[in-house]
Amino acid sequence: MLPILFTIPKLKLGPIALGPMPIHTYGVMIVVSFLAGMWLVRKRASLYGFNPEKVLDMGFWALIAGVLGARIAFILQELPYFLKHKDELYSLQFSGLTSFGGEILAVIAIVIWAKRTKYKIVSILDLAAPGYVLGYSIGRIGCFLNGCCYGGVCSTTLPWGVHFTDAVGLHHPAQLYDTLMNLVALAILLKLPATKLNPGRMAAIALILHGIARFIYEFWRAGTEEQVKQGLASSTYWGNLPITQGHAMALGFIIIGAVWFFLARKSTESAPSSADIA
């Protein structure tokens, strides 16, 4: 694992002393994932008639909202702990984040941005969907390097079993499984004829595929119930149910995507022209 990419040495500028400052790999990968996602969004903007430069504003607000939402969701998920450690509520580092919270608040931010700029919400979500899946795939590599979100204990004969710093035994590199599944989802999305799909269907398909990948990932991440009880997995089952909270959220994404896909066939909205939004 490589949680710290490098450390900026202590610097002294006159009376001001700075550092040493560790640069966390996870934070770097989050930045890389954002840049990669926005690159894809800008590259595909013309398919929907959008000005590539203007969609950068959307990406900025989605990033801010995503990080905030991921942090809030993590705090709510671990509320008993944070009620006892209130000094840890605020963090300027990319740590203690939950992807579902980030996804939900980022979408809300995009919707608000689209309304304020008078962009068609469904079209902007269609545009953003593949970029998000690409960014998410890269972000999971950050989880792997950070040593978090790993899978359950695996056989010692598994060639790619990984020993994570804070875990006992060899574990499935579930983060990379998730990355691979989402890259397959991305390939499918990029193969779809974007200009021929009813508005909303690209985003709906992305939601379904991403939800399926996350649902499968949770089985590897949680491992067996016994592994969870022994603290040998990074996810937990939801009460006495045979599913995790991640499973429930992923299933929700799949259902919402399926309903959205069905309703989109009745949509009469057409893609905006560049003259409308340049």
SSE layout and pairings?
Blueprint: E1 4-8, E2 11-13, E3 16-18, E4 21-24, H1 25-44, H2 55-77, H3 79-84, H4 99-117, H5 121-146, H6 174-191, H7 201-222, H8 225-229, H9 245-264, H10 274-277
Antiparallel strand pairs: 1-4, 2-3
Structural account:
- The protein is globular, with a radius of gyration of 20 Å.
- Strand 2 and strand 3 (16-18) form a beta hairpin.
- It has helices spanning 25-44, 55-77, 79-84, 99-117, 121-146, 174-191, 201-222, 225-229, 245-264, 274-277, and strands at 4-8, 11-13, 16-18, 21-24.
- The chain is 59% helix and 5% strand.
- The strands form 2 sheets. Strands 1-4 form a two-stranded antiparallel sheet. The protein has a two-stranded antiparallel ribbon with strand order 2-3.
- It is mainly alpha-helical.
- The model is unreliable at 268-278 (pLDDT under 50).
- Helix 5 runs antiparallel to helix 6 and helix 5 runs parallel beside helix 7 (201-222).
- The chain has one domain (4-9, 18-267).
TL;DR?
The protein is mostly helical and 278 residues long. The chain has 10 helices and 4 strands, in the order ββββαααααααααα. Helix 1 runs antiparallel to helix 2 (55-77) and helix 6 packs antiparallel against helix 7 (201-222).
